[in-house]
Every structure is written in structure tokens, then in C-alpha cells.
């Protein structure tokens, strides 16, 4: 029987605070964003490896604080506000000019507002030319994220499958958790790919189906998800 062609229906990942799965690898960072607005310092840098959930944490805080995402050229208007709240995602790779970065970090340090930045590197390791910018960032509060542990990966996978109305049993979930790349981004891609595979083949999401998805390799999973759309549907052992 020919495989069914899945429809490219949209599936929007949630970055809400209630969708954050708590585990030992992210507990301190989650507690840091939850403690706002009672921050001891007005600049927080969330540091972690790729796929550790930095962007999700930043988005959850931004929703709660009404924070503005910053990019090149967006600082001047924000500094006109009496009490600003801002997010810089991937400050280690931002296209913002250093004088812009210094202006917003310094304004926050002086009590003008609050700033949350994410980074793959510690603030003291960021290769900025401006000494004042480096010193301000080095004085920021740092919340570290570790690579996702088994508890976090399992929780995120369960949530992602549930969002697609897919029931997955404990054995299939453990099979996937033990073999996948330890990244929350990879978890999203694999769930999308498994969903599409199940819909196309009219199978449940079992270990056998998950093995096929994993055997195709990371690049194939990413290619399928990008080319076919983000909505790749359903489980047993």
C-alpha cells in the first residue's frame, strides 16, 4: 500500500512558562526567571549549550515581564521608556553594535530597567572590544543550564507527543531518550518526524517506527522537517 502524503498543517511550539519541564539540569535557571521582579541585579545572563532551552526560558520571561526582544537599531527607542524590560537572545552571536549593547546593559545596571540575555558562552568569555561592556556583563547574574538530562528529555518528549495527540508508552519513550542527541531542539525535530512517519505509514508510534526515524540520521530528519513542513500522527511498544 502506498504511503499517505502528510498534509503540511502548522504546529506552533509553545514557549509558555507552564510548558517548561523542570529537572536538575535547568532548575536554577528556571528559579532565576521565576524570581523576577525581585532580582538582586537587573541583568541576568542565561548560559547553556545549544538545545538546552535558553530561548524557551527567555520567551517565558519576556511574556511575563512584557519584555521587548532586541536587535540592531532597537535600543534608542527602548531607552526612552522609564522602566524597560528587554531580551537579547544569543548575545554571543548578536548583530547588535557594541555601543548599543553597552547602552542597554549600562542603563539596566543603573536602574533603568531589566535585561535578560542568553548565551552559549560565559559573559566573561565574550570577545567584545569595549572594556566597559565586558566589565558590565562580567558583573551580571549568571544562570547556567546543563545539557538536558534524561528527566528533562523524557518530560519534553512526552509534552511534544501529547501536543500532537500522540500516546507513547514508557518503553518507546525510553528507547528514544537513550538514543537521541541530547538537545531539546532535536527532541522537537524527532517528534515532528515521528508524527509524519506515523501518518504516512498509518502506524502507531512504536519503537520500530522510532528506529526507522533514528536510522535516517540527523540530517535526514532535519531535511524532512524543513522540506515537508513543521507538522510531520500516532503508539504502542
UniProtKB/TrEMBL annotation:
GO terms for cellular component: plasma membrane
Molecular-function GO terms, alphabetical: DNA replication origin binding
InterPro entries for the chain: P-loop_NTPase (IPR027417)
GO biological process: DNA replication initiation
PANTHER family: CHROMOSOMAL REPLICATION INITIATOR PROTEIN DNAA (PTHR30050), DNAA REGULATORY INACTIVATOR HDA (PTHR30050:SF5)
Name of the protein this chain belongs to: Uncharacterized protein
Species this chain originates from: Aurantimonas aggregata
Amino acid at each position: 500500500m502506498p504511503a499517505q502524503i502528510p498534509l503540511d498543517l502548522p504546529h506552533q511550539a509553545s514557549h509558555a512558562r507552564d510548558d517548561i519541564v523542570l529537572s536538575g539540569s535547568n532548575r536554577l535557571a528556571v528559579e532565576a526567571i521565576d524570581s523576577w521582579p525581585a532580582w538582586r541585579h537587573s541583568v541576568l545572563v542565561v548560559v547553556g549549550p545549544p538545545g538546552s532551552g535558553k530561548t524557551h526560558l527567555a520567551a517565558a520571561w519576556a511574556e511575563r515581564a512584557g519584555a521587548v526582544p532586541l536587535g540592531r537599531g532597537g535600543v534608542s527607542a527602548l531607552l526612552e521608556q522609564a522602566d524597560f524590560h528587554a531580551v537579547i537572545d544569543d548575545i554571543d552571536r548578536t548583530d547588535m553594535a557594541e555601543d548599543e549593547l553597552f547602552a542597554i546593559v549600562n542603563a539596566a545596571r543603573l536602574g533603568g530597567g531589566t535585561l535578560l540575555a542568553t548565551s552559549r558562552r560565559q559573559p566573561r568569555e565574550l570577545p567584545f572590544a569595549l572594556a566597559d561592556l565586558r566589565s558590565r556583563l562580567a558583573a551580571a547574574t549568571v544562570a547556567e543550564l546543563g545539557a538536558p538530562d534524561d528527566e528533562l528529555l523524557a518530560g519534553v518528549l512526552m509534552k511534544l507527543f501529547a501536543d500532537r495527540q500522540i500516546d507513547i508508552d514508557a518503553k518507546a519513550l525510553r528507547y528514544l531518550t537513550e538514543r537521541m542527541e541530547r538537545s531539546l531542539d532535536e527532541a522537537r525535530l524527532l517528534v515532528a518526524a515521528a508524527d509524519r512517519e506515523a501518518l504516512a505509514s498509518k502506524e502507531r508510534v512504536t519503537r520500530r517506527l522510532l528506529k526507522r526515524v533514528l536510522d535516517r540520521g540527523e540530517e535526514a530528519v532535519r531535511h524532512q522537517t524543513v522540506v515537508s513542513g513543521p507538522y510531520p500522527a500516532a503508539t504502542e511498544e
